[in-house]
Amino acid sequence: MSCGALVFVSTLCWIQRLWAALFRETGVTASEQCDSPGSIFESLIEKSTSHKAKNHVLDFIVLALYKEHTGGGRCNILFSTPNLLISTMEKIIFYEDRNFQGRYHESGNDFSDLHTYVSRCNSIKVLGGFWVVYEKPNYMGHQYVLSPGEYPDYQYWLGINDAVRSCRVVRHVGNMWRMKIWEKPNFEGESVELSDNMPTFHERWQSRDVQSCKVFEGAWIFYEHPNYRGRQYLLEKGEYRRYSEWGGRQPSVGSVRRVKN
């Protein structure tokens, strides 16, 4: 490899690492679509709460301005890298048969109906990002939260059958987690704040019922039974005034787990 090629590859790798750091430190996820470099910077600056993250954003702006000032025009490597990174960060492959055999479908985005591409799903590869797959179309039915890895059989993701009809990227996966739960709907009654996993929920919460909650940081999973068993319910940043808003059939919660890299 020539010296010029080595410099190019090294620069590209450095830029990709810088973008990854920005996404991680600001909470801007790969699934957030940005139409232009300006909108990318605007989103990053808005979410840059730490001094380190702000410095990363400024590094990019300085690089871009320098490139244009020296007559090089727009730096295509610099501005195409976010989209390149986005396309490789989140990726999932569904296979009709076990052990990654048979017809398959690859996705990098939310998908409301997979039945056109695969009639059943017996194995999955998650090549990037965290995903929640659903038993039914339009993000309905049983939920299963998947981390990067290989699942040669539906039992590996605790599935009850080979039905996977829709999928969605899990957003707000980061390094901080904070959630508050209430015993009654609309954030009323007794409450408690959580920041860690709870394999046995009732040890800290007198009642197993959770009627409403607010997720301030990170993504979480409610499990129907203790020790992370039973139905799963993904909760991301936002407010849930009643248990039906996170897809629950009833308000009982047996265990709680953070979605963690």
**Overall 3D form:** elongated
Alpha-beta classification: alpha+beta
Share of residues in strands: 25-35%
Catalogue the unreliable spans: 1-13, 30-38, 48-52, 64-88
Number of helices: 4
Radius of gyration: 21 Å
Q: Report the count of strand segments.
A: 14
In angstroms, what separates the terminal alpha carbons? Answer: 35 Å
Order of helices and strands: HHHHEEEEEEEEEEEEEE
Count up the domains: 3
Q: What is the mean pLDDT?
A: 78
Strand order of the biggest β-sheet: 2-1-3-6
Task: Describe the largest sheet.
Answer: 4 strands, antiparallel
Report the helical percentage.
25-40%
Domain Beta/gamma crystallin 'Greek key': 90-128, 129-171, 177-217, 218-260
Keywords: Eye lens protein, Repeat, Signal
Family: Belongs to the beta/gamma-crystallin family.
GO molecular function: structural constituent of eye lens
Structural description of this entry:
Keywords: Eye lens protein, Repeat, Signal. Crystallins are the dominant structural components of the vertebrate eye lens. One of its GO terms (molecular function) is structural constituent of eye lens. Residues 90-128, 129-171, 177-217, 218-260 form the Beta/gamma crystallin 'Greek key' domain. 26% of the residues lie in helices and 31% in strands. It is an alpha+beta fold and 261 residues long. The protein has three domains: 3-88, no CATH class; 91-169, Crystallins (Gamma-B Crystallin, domain 1), CATH 2.60.20; 178-258, Gamma-B Crystallin, domain 1 (Sandwich). The strands form four sheets. The protein has a four-stranded antiparallel β-sheet. It has a four-stranded antiparallel β-sheet with strand order 9-8-10-13, with no helix packed on it. A hairpin with a 3-residue loop joins strand 11 (220-225) and strand 12 (229-235). Helix 1 (3-26) runs antiparallel to helix 3 (51-69) and helix 1 crosses helix 4. The two termini are 35 Å apart.
